[in-house]
Design a protein that fits this description.
- The structure is a single chain.
- By secondary structure, this protein is an all-alpha fold.
- It is built from 7 helices and no strands.
- The protein has helices at residues 35-44, 56-77, 83-90, 94-110, 112-115, 122-144, 148-168.
- Helix 2 (56-77) runs parallel beside helix 6 (122-144), helix 4 (94-110) packs across helix 6 and helix 4 (94-110) runs parallel beside helix 7.
- The longest helix has 23 residues, at 122-144.
Length: 170
Amino acid sequence: MARPSHQWDTSGIRHMKIEDEPTAVNSNVAPIVDAMETERIVESLVKFDISQVGSTAWMDQHRKLEKLNIQAHQNAMTNSDEFVLEAVLTFNKLDTLIHDLLLIETWKENVYPLLLDKLTGRNNMRLYFILYHEATLINLFEVFLYYRHVCEAGGETVSYTHLRAHETGR
């Protein structure tokens, strides 16, 4: 007995074949941000106080870090110039990024529980971005810390962060 034909019938359509061999990454992908804009963004990064988390200025920096994160991954995937990483090291902003990561961890532990009952509507999206910010930073560090010279540039701050993460089981 033949199956009835309907709009979702895929029996006559060739299906994509998943292959074990990796495909070549297109190195001609347009950058999210170019090297000059990256330098301007990195140079503008600042350390925020815990009371500023979620503010308009903080959200603006979060958007910039999102762009840098995507670009850093794109550079790594295409084996192209690591200009995001180099800008962070040139402008000595590794410490700012580590500060930001520790700030979000502190905010999550001390402020977030106090806000849970009070947040509604539009504030929920702002809360989402604050919580997502930690993932953005960790993802960015994942690309950066592949290189030994980044770990060395972070000095004691990277060692302390690694020790703290190990102590808390993260």
